[in-house]
Amino acid sequence: MNGLRGMSPLLDCVCSKGSVSWLLCGSDCVERKHYASGRMYRGRAHQCPANPCRSDSGATGFLLMSGQVPGSGRPRIADHEVLRHLARGTYGSVWLVQSVLGRCRAAKVVERRAFASSRQYEREWTGVRHFEPISRTHPGFVHILQVGRCPDDTWFYYVMELADDLRRMPVEDCSEYVPRTLRAELDRRRRLPVLECVLVARTLLLALQVLHHRGLVHRDMKPANIIYVDGVPKLADIGTVATQQHGGTSVGSVGYHPPEGSGRPAGDIFSMGRILYEMFSGVAVQELADNLPDLTPRLKNDVERRFYQIIQRSCSFDPRQRPASAGALEQELAALCEV
Q: What is the pTM of this model?
Protein backbone atom coordinates (compact mmCIF):
# COMPACT_ATOMS: atom_id res chain seq x y z
CA MET A 1 0.00 0.00 0.00
CA ASN A 2 1.50 3.32 -1.05
CA GLY A 3 2.75 5.31 1.95
CA LEU A 4 2.29 2.63 4.59
CA ARG A 5 5.98 2.32 5.41
CA GLY A 6 7.02 -0.74 7.38
CA MET A 7 3.48 -1.98 7.57
CA SER A 8 2.79 -5.70 7.72
CA PRO A 9 1.08 -7.02 4.56
CA LEU A 10 -1.17 -9.11 6.81
CA LEU A 11 -4.14 -6.92 7.63
CA ASP A 12 -6.82 -8.07 10.04
CA CYS A 13 -8.49 -5.04 11.54
CA VAL A 14 -10.35 -2.14 10.01
CA CYS A 15 -12.69 0.59 11.13
CA SER A 16 -14.44 3.40 9.35
CA LYS A 17 -16.66 6.40 9.88
CA GLY A 18 -18.60 7.63 6.88
CA SER A 19 -16.26 7.84 3.90
CA VAL A 20 -13.16 7.71 6.10
CA SER A 21 -11.36 4.38 5.96
CA TRP A 22 -8.56 3.18 8.22
CA LEU A 23 -6.14 0.43 7.34
CA LEU A 24 -4.54 -1.34 10.29
CA CYS A 25 -1.92 -4.04 10.45
CA GLY A 26 -2.29 -7.03 12.72
CA SER A 27 0.48 -5.96 15.12
CA ASP A 28 -0.21 -4.11 18.38
CA CYS A 29 1.44 -0.90 17.16
CA VAL A 30 0.18 0.21 13.76
CA GLU A 31 0.46 2.86 11.11
CA ARG A 32 -2.78 4.29 9.82
CA LYS A 33 -3.65 6.26 6.77
CA HIS A 34 -6.58 8.65 6.70
CA TYR A 35 -7.82 8.04 3.17
CA ALA A 36 -9.62 11.36 2.98
CA SER A 37 -6.58 13.52 3.88
CA GLY A 38 -3.64 11.19 3.22
CA ARG A 39 -2.29 11.89 6.73
CA MET A 40 -0.53 9.13 8.64
CA TYR A 41 -1.19 8.18 12.26
CA ARG A 42 0.60 5.80 14.61
CA GLY A 43 -0.72 4.20 17.75
CA ARG A 44 -2.40 1.12 19.14
CA ALA A 45 -5.32 -0.52 17.39
CA HIS A 46 -7.79 0.35 20.14
CA GLN A 47 -6.89 4.06 19.92
CA CYS A 48 -8.39 4.62 16.48
CA PRO A 49 -10.12 8.05 16.50
CA ALA A 50 -13.03 6.73 14.42
CA ASN A 51 -15.45 4.03 15.53
CA PRO A 52 -14.18 1.03 17.54
CA CYS A 53 -12.39 -1.42 15.23
CA ARG A 54 -14.26 -4.24 13.60
CA SER A 55 -11.88 -7.10 14.11
CA ASP A 56 -11.62 -10.14 11.89
CA SER A 57 -9.40 -12.25 14.13
CA GLY A 58 -7.11 -14.64 12.39
CA ALA A 59 -7.91 -13.36 8.90
CA THR A 60 -5.39 -11.77 6.56
CA GLY A 61 -5.71 -9.13 3.90
CA PHE A 62 -9.01 -7.69 5.16
CA LEU A 63 -9.90 -4.18 4.02
CA LEU A 64 -12.95 -1.98 4.50
CA MET A 65 -13.46 0.71 1.92
CA SER A 66 -16.15 2.91 0.44
CA GLY A 67 -17.34 2.48 -3.14
CA GLN A 68 -20.30 2.44 -5.45
CA VAL A 69 -23.11 0.03 -4.85
CA PRO A 70 -22.46 -2.68 -7.48
CA GLY A 71 -25.90 -2.31 -9.01
CA SER A 72 -25.20 1.31 -9.97
CA GLY A 73 -22.05 0.57 -12.00
CA ARG A 74 -18.59 -0.84 -11.55
CA PRO A 75 -17.57 -1.47 -7.94
CA ARG A 76 -14.51 0.21 -6.50
CA ILE A 77 -11.94 -2.34 -5.40
CA ALA A 78 -9.11 -0.93 -3.30
CA ASP A 79 -5.74 -0.82 -5.13
CA HIS A 80 -7.27 -2.40 -8.25
CA GLU A 81 -8.57 -1.09 -11.54
CA VAL A 82 -11.82 -2.74 -12.54
CA LEU A 83 -11.45 -3.75 -16.19
CA ARG A 84 -14.69 -5.49 -17.07
CA HIS A 85 -17.56 -7.65 -15.92
CA LEU A 86 -17.00 -11.41 -16.27
CA ALA A 87 -20.06 -13.16 -14.90
CA ARG A 88 -23.27 -12.66 -12.98
CA GLY A 89 -24.57 -15.17 -10.47
CA THR A 90 -27.51 -15.45 -8.11
CA TYR A 91 -25.85 -13.51 -5.30
CA GLY A 92 -23.42 -11.19 -7.04
CA SER A 93 -20.95 -10.73 -9.85
CA VAL A 94 -17.36 -11.46 -10.84
CA TRP A 95 -15.09 -8.76 -12.28
CA LEU A 96 -11.74 -8.77 -14.02
CA VAL A 97 -9.46 -6.41 -12.11
CA GLN A 98 -5.82 -5.33 -12.31
CA SER A 99 -3.63 -4.69 -9.27
CA VAL A 100 -1.28 -1.73 -8.82
CA LEU A 101 1.52 -4.12 -9.85
CA GLY A 102 -0.24 -4.83 -13.14
CA ARG A 103 -1.39 -8.35 -12.27
CA CYS A 104 -4.82 -9.45 -13.42
CA ARG A 105 -7.08 -10.91 -10.75
CA ALA A 106 -10.73 -11.83 -10.31
CA ALA A 107 -12.91 -9.99 -7.81
CA LYS A 108 -16.21 -11.42 -6.64
CA VAL A 109 -18.76 -8.91 -5.37
CA VAL A 110 -21.53 -10.29 -3.16
CA GLU A 111 -24.60 -8.08 -2.65
CA ARG A 112 -26.82 -8.12 0.42
CA ARG A 113 -29.92 -7.28 -1.62
CA ALA A 114 -29.57 -10.54 -3.58
CA PHE A 115 -30.35 -12.61 -0.49
CA ALA A 116 -33.75 -13.35 0.98
CA SER A 117 -32.47 -12.60 4.47
CA SER A 118 -29.53 -10.98 6.26
CA ARG A 119 -28.76 -14.39 7.77
CA GLN A 120 -28.06 -15.82 4.30
CA TYR A 121 -25.84 -12.86 3.43
CA GLU A 122 -23.86 -13.28 6.64
CA ARG A 123 -23.53 -17.00 5.89
CA GLU A 124 -21.73 -16.12 2.66
CA TRP A 125 -19.47 -13.68 4.51
CA THR A 126 -18.73 -16.30 7.15
CA GLY A 127 -17.74 -18.76 4.42
CA VAL A 128 -15.13 -16.32 3.15
CA ARG A 129 -13.85 -15.72 6.68
CA HIS A 130 -13.53 -19.46 7.27
CA PHE A 131 -11.71 -20.13 4.03
CA GLU A 132 -9.45 -17.09 3.64
CA PRO A 133 -6.92 -18.00 6.37
CA ILE A 134 -6.22 -21.41 4.78
CA SER A 135 -6.66 -20.46 1.12
CA ARG A 136 -2.91 -20.24 0.51
CA THR A 137 -1.98 -23.45 2.34
CA HIS A 138 -2.66 -25.88 -0.51
CA PRO A 139 -2.27 -25.66 -4.31
CA GLY A 140 -5.79 -27.07 -4.72
CA PHE A 141 -7.36 -23.99 -3.07
CA VAL A 142 -8.01 -20.78 -4.97
CA HIS A 143 -5.89 -18.14 -3.23
CA ILE A 144 -7.82 -15.30 -1.60
CA LEU A 145 -5.64 -12.19 -1.88
CA GLN A 146 -7.79 -9.41 -0.43
CA VAL A 147 -11.20 -9.05 1.21
CA GLY A 148 -13.28 -5.91 1.69
CA ARG A 149 -16.65 -4.86 3.04
CA CYS A 150 -18.21 -1.51 2.18
CA PRO A 151 -19.02 0.89 5.06
CA ASP A 152 -22.81 0.74 4.65
CA ASP A 153 -22.56 -3.07 4.65
CA THR A 154 -24.62 -3.55 1.49
CA TRP A 155 -21.92 -5.61 -0.24
CA PHE A 156 -18.52 -7.18 0.19
CA TYR A 157 -15.89 -8.48 -2.16
CA TYR A 158 -12.89 -10.74 -2.30
CA VAL A 159 -10.00 -10.66 -4.77
CA MET A 160 -8.62 -14.02 -5.84
CA GLU A 161 -6.37 -15.68 -8.35
CA LEU A 162 -7.53 -15.36 -11.93
CA ALA A 163 -8.42 -18.55 -13.77
CA ASP A 164 -6.45 -19.43 -16.87
CA ASP A 165 -7.82 -18.31 -20.21
CA LEU A 166 -9.87 -21.09 -21.82
CA ARG A 167 -8.01 -20.38 -25.08
CA ARG A 168 -4.71 -21.13 -23.28
CA MET A 169 -3.58 -17.57 -24.06
CA PRO A 170 -2.03 -15.01 -21.67
CA VAL A 171 -4.56 -12.50 -20.32
CA GLU A 172 -3.46 -9.52 -22.41
CA ASP A 173 -6.59 -8.54 -24.30
CA CYS A 174 -9.11 -8.60 -21.46
CA SER A 175 -12.01 -8.19 -23.88
CA GLU A 176 -11.36 -11.73 -25.16
CA TYR A 177 -10.69 -13.41 -21.82
CA VAL A 178 -12.81 -16.49 -21.00
CA PRO A 179 -12.13 -18.17 -17.62
CA ARG A 180 -11.13 -21.83 -17.75
CA THR A 181 -13.37 -23.75 -15.37
CA LEU A 182 -13.99 -27.47 -15.31
CA ARG A 183 -17.51 -26.66 -16.56
CA ALA A 184 -16.11 -24.79 -19.57
CA GLU A 185 -13.64 -27.61 -20.17
CA LEU A 186 -16.43 -30.22 -20.19
CA ASP A 187 -18.64 -28.07 -22.41
CA ARG A 188 -15.78 -27.85 -24.89
CA ARG A 189 -14.48 -31.45 -24.74
CA ARG A 190 -17.57 -33.28 -23.42
CA ARG A 191 -15.63 -35.98 -21.56
CA LEU A 192 -12.08 -36.51 -20.28
CA PRO A 193 -9.75 -39.55 -20.44
CA VAL A 194 -9.60 -41.69 -17.30
CA LEU A 195 -6.08 -40.57 -16.40
CA GLU A 196 -7.01 -36.91 -16.62
CA CYS A 197 -10.15 -37.52 -14.53
CA VAL A 198 -8.00 -39.17 -11.88
CA LEU A 199 -5.37 -36.42 -11.84
CA VAL A 200 -7.98 -33.67 -11.51
CA ALA A 201 -9.83 -35.55 -8.77
CA ARG A 202 -6.69 -36.36 -6.77
CA THR A 203 -5.64 -32.70 -6.68
CA LEU A 204 -9.09 -31.64 -5.49
CA LEU A 205 -9.36 -34.48 -2.97
CA LEU A 206 -6.03 -33.57 -1.36
CA ALA A 207 -7.35 -30.02 -0.99
CA LEU A 208 -10.62 -31.37 0.43
CA GLN A 209 -8.64 -33.44 2.91
CA VAL A 210 -7.00 -30.26 4.25
CA LEU A 211 -10.37 -28.50 4.38
CA HIS A 212 -12.00 -31.38 6.28
CA HIS A 213 -9.09 -31.67 8.73
CA ARG A 214 -9.72 -28.01 9.58
CA GLY A 215 -13.29 -28.91 10.52
CA LEU A 216 -14.76 -27.30 7.37
CA VAL A 217 -16.82 -28.49 4.40
CA HIS A 218 -17.22 -26.92 0.94
CA ARG A 219 -20.92 -27.82 0.41
CA ASP A 220 -21.20 -26.79 -3.25
CA MET A 221 -18.70 -28.74 -5.29
CA LYS A 222 -19.52 -28.81 -9.01
CA PRO A 223 -17.62 -28.26 -12.28
CA ALA A 224 -18.52 -24.56 -12.42
CA ASN A 225 -16.86 -24.05 -9.02
CA ILE A 226 -13.54 -25.57 -10.07
CA ILE A 227 -11.09 -23.30 -11.88
CA TYR A 228 -7.69 -23.90 -13.45
CA VAL A 229 -4.76 -21.68 -12.46
CA ASP A 230 -1.50 -22.39 -14.30
CA GLY A 231 -3.08 -25.67 -15.32
CA VAL A 232 -3.84 -26.75 -11.73
CA PRO A 233 -7.51 -27.44 -10.82
CA LYS A 234 -8.61 -25.54 -7.71
CA LEU A 235 -11.65 -25.37 -5.45
CA ALA A 236 -13.29 -21.98 -5.89
CA ASP A 237 -16.57 -20.16 -5.11
CA ILE A 238 -15.94 -20.52 -1.41
CA GLY A 239 -18.88 -18.59 0.04
CA THR A 240 -20.60 -21.84 1.03
CA VAL A 241 -17.66 -23.10 3.13
CA ALA A 242 -18.88 -23.79 6.67
CA THR A 243 -18.00 -25.67 9.83
CA GLN A 244 -18.99 -29.33 9.84
CA GLN A 245 -22.37 -30.06 11.39
CA HIS A 246 -25.02 -32.76 11.41
CA GLY A 247 -27.96 -30.39 11.03
CA GLY A 248 -28.42 -26.78 9.92
CA THR A 249 -29.15 -25.22 6.56
CA SER A 250 -28.35 -27.46 3.62
CA VAL A 251 -26.97 -25.75 0.52
CA GLY A 252 -25.68 -27.00 -2.82
CA SER A 253 -26.59 -27.50 -6.48
CA VAL A 254 -29.00 -29.87 -8.19
CA GLY A 255 -27.27 -33.03 -9.33
CA TYR A 256 -24.32 -32.66 -6.95
CA HIS A 257 -26.13 -32.17 -3.65
CA PRO A 258 -25.95 -35.20 -1.30
CA PRO A 259 -29.32 -36.68 -0.31
CA GLU A 260 -28.53 -36.49 3.43
CA GLY A 261 -27.58 -32.78 3.28
CA SER A 262 -24.32 -30.92 2.87
CA GLY A 263 -23.03 -30.41 6.40
CA ARG A 264 -20.59 -33.32 6.63
CA PRO A 265 -17.41 -34.40 4.73
CA ALA A 266 -19.33 -37.35 3.26
CA GLY A 267 -21.46 -34.82 1.38
CA ASP A 268 -18.40 -33.35 -0.34
CA ILE A 269 -17.32 -36.88 -1.29
CA PHE A 270 -20.74 -37.50 -2.88
CA SER A 271 -20.35 -34.27 -4.89
CA MET A 272 -16.86 -35.33 -5.94
CA GLY A 273 -18.27 -38.68 -7.09
CA ARG A 274 -20.83 -36.87 -9.24
CA ILE A 275 -18.08 -34.70 -10.74
CA LEU A 276 -16.06 -37.83 -11.52
CA TYR A 277 -19.09 -39.37 -13.19
CA GLU A 278 -19.59 -36.30 -15.37
CA MET A 279 -15.91 -36.04 -16.34
CA PHE A 280 -15.80 -39.71 -17.28
CA SER A 281 -19.18 -40.07 -19.01
CA GLY A 282 -19.80 -36.68 -20.59
CA VAL A 283 -23.33 -36.78 -19.14
CA ALA A 284 -24.56 -33.45 -17.74
CA VAL A 285 -25.32 -34.43 -14.14
CA GLN A 286 -27.13 -31.18 -13.32
CA GLU A 287 -29.68 -31.83 -16.07
CA LEU A 288 -30.47 -35.42 -15.02
CA ALA A 289 -30.26 -35.02 -11.23
CA ASP A 290 -30.57 -38.56 -9.79
CA ASN A 291 -31.38 -40.38 -13.04
CA LEU A 292 -27.83 -41.15 -14.12
CA PRO A 293 -27.39 -43.76 -16.89
CA ASP A 294 -25.54 -46.96 -16.09
CA LEU A 295 -22.15 -46.83 -17.80
CA THR A 296 -21.35 -50.54 -17.48
CA PRO A 297 -22.12 -51.48 -21.14
CA ARG A 298 -19.64 -48.91 -22.48
CA LEU A 299 -16.65 -49.81 -20.27
CA LYS A 300 -13.72 -50.94 -22.41
CA ASN A 301 -11.13 -52.41 -20.05
CA ASP A 302 -10.35 -53.35 -16.45
CA VAL A 303 -9.09 -49.88 -15.54
CA GLU A 304 -12.36 -48.30 -16.66
CA ARG A 305 -14.36 -50.95 -14.77
CA ARG A 306 -12.41 -50.36 -11.55
CA PHE A 307 -12.71 -46.61 -12.01
CA TYR A 308 -16.47 -46.84 -12.47
CA GLN A 309 -16.80 -48.96 -9.32
CA ILE A 310 -15.05 -46.20 -7.35
CA ILE A 311 -17.42 -43.63 -8.87
CA GLN A 312 -20.47 -45.70 -7.99
CA ARG A 313 -19.44 -46.07 -4.35
CA SER A 314 -18.64 -42.36 -4.09
CA CYS A 315 -22.11 -41.55 -5.45
CA SER A 316 -23.92 -43.94 -3.13
CA PHE A 317 -27.04 -42.47 -1.51
CA ASP A 318 -25.93 -44.20 1.71
CA PRO A 319 -23.01 -42.20 3.21
CA ARG A 320 -21.75 -45.37 4.91
CA GLN A 321 -21.08 -46.96 1.50
CA ARG A 322 -18.86 -44.11 0.29
CA PRO A 323 -15.09 -43.92 0.85
CA ALA A 324 -14.44 -43.04 4.48
CA SER A 325 -12.70 -39.75 3.73
CA ALA A 326 -11.34 -37.53 0.97
CA GLY A 327 -7.91 -39.02 1.68
CA ALA A 328 -9.23 -42.57 1.34
CA LEU A 329 -10.82 -41.79 -2.02
CA GLU A 330 -7.60 -40.13 -3.20
CA GLN A 331 -5.65 -43.27 -2.27
CA GLU A 332 -8.03 -45.48 -4.22
CA LEU A 333 -7.54 -43.33 -7.29
CA ALA A 334 -3.78 -43.31 -6.78
CA ALA A 335 -3.78 -47.12 -6.72
CA LEU A 336 -5.74 -47.12 -9.97
CA CYS A 337 -2.90 -45.18 -11.64
CA GLU A 338 -0.44 -47.89 -10.64
CA VAL A 339 -2.24 -50.60 -12.61
A: 0.76
Give the fold, CATH level 3, of 70-160.
Answer: Phosphorylase Kinase; domain 1 (3.30.200)
Per-position b or e across 154-176, b if 16+ CB within 10 A of its CB: ebbbbbbbbbbbbeeeebeeeee
Q: Cβ atoms within 10 A of the Cβ of 201, count?
A: 24
**Does the structural domain 180-337 have CATH classification 3.40.50.720?**
no
- The whole-angstrom separation of Cα 16 and Cα 34 is 10
Residues 6+ apart with CB under 8 A from 110: 91, 92, 121, 124, 125, 155, 156, 157, 239
The structural domains of the chain, with segments of one domain joined by +, span 11-63, 70-160, 180-337
- Burial level of 81, CB count in 10 A (0-12/13-18/19+)? middle
DSSP β-ladder status, 62-63 and 144-149: parallel
Give pLDDT tens digits for 308-318: 999 999 999 99
Q: How many CB atoms lie within 10 A of CB 305?
A: 12
In this chain, the answer to whether the domains covering 70-160 and 180-337 adopt an identical fold is: no
Quick one: 193 exposed, middle or buried, by C-beta within 10 A (0-12, 13-18, 19+)? exposed
Query: Could you report how far apart the first and last alpha carbons of the chain are, in Å?
Result: 52
Q: Each residue of 180-207: pLDDT tens digit? A: 999 999 999 999 999 999 999 999 999 9
Shortest CA distance to 282 belongs to which of 197, 180, 178? Answer: 197
pLDDT in tens, 212-243: 999 999 988 999 999 999 999 999 988 888 88
